[in-house]
Amino acid sequence: MGMLEGRVAIVTGAGSGIGREHARRLAAEGASVVACDLRGSANVATEIRAGGRPAIGMDANCAVWAEAEAVVAAAVDTFGALHILVNNAGVGGGRMFAEMSEAEWEASITGNLRTAVAPTRAAVGYWRTEAQAGRPVKASVISTSSGAGLVGNVGQSHYGAAKAAVAAMTVIVAKELEGLGVRLNAVAPAARTPMSSGNPVVVEMMRAPDDPDAFDAWHPREVSPLVAYLASEACPWSGKVFHARGGLIACFQGWSLGPSLTSDRPWTTADIAERLPAVVAEAERLAAQSAPPNDEMRRRLAESVLARAAAAGPAKQ
Ligand SMILES: NC(=O)c1ccc[n+]([C@@H]2O[C@H](COP(=O)([O-])OP(=O)(O)OC[C@H]3O[C@@H](n4cnc5c(N)ncnc54)[C@H](O)[C@@H]3O)[C@@H](O)[C@H]2O)c1
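# nicotinamide-adenine-dinucleotide complex -> structure
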């Protein structure tokens, strides 16, 4: 018996890449699945049903509150309940900040932050009504963040800002809903998908092994087992943020106060100029000791993005 037997799950962005693998894995673990995407969601639902598990597809823009509410309503109408929401939908893209248009910034915030906010708000509304009616709630939301925001990718300030906000929302709403029986966690994945195919450095790193029997660590299916565990009643955690890919799961430790400067009298600018550099140097030394596992890749990615931008020259306004 799978870990999600009897549970009902929504997966957004389920038509492609990592989301498709999440939908398949949750179904394999016993969940009934609502696969949502902008278009083509029926395909993954058909595939899951062919494997003997219940699933429906729902084409919807989950960044729009009314459409997200319709997806939650479809889950409840079709399967009688909702226990799991996987906020996976997202849009990629890169642009140096100095060349960013308002439309590009807004599209990324909508495509990566609102896509997590609207379904979460709709699902939480349903769970609150359930709790008010005296029915016990044991629900789990797993949202998708990114190292692009939590660590910082050059050329992705819009995408990174949205993905860092997804992590912040997860941590805060997890605290707000402690008493309701709703857990929220976030996963920052890394996998070979249409979205990650835009930069040659990344494409080379994520290339599938030549030997079809070798472990394919960058296959998007390698992110899904963690999501399935976070979705299960066996998982006790809420408010955590993880990095996940094949062969590596790591806990993000978030923004935390490190080395500090104290004073028992009002600051002077001269004090700060004299004493703060040693504190910052100590913080940098400690940060270098715990460099995240993808740091080398991120450094090479930054170099290639900066080189491309330098070759292109300043964009004409
Ligand atoms: N691939 C990676 O290495 C990587 C790294 C970090 C984060 N992520 C995140 O993982 C998630 C999945 O990405 P992927 O790599 O599988 O990309 P992908 O492009 O293959 O899949 C994203 C899916 O989301 C759907 N989508 C986008 N906006 C939507 C909306 N408003 N409503 C409904 N569906 C919508 C798209 O149609 C697409 O099917 C995204 O949130 C992405 O930002 C991916």
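# post-check
The radius of gyration is 21 Å.
The longest strand covers residues 182-189.
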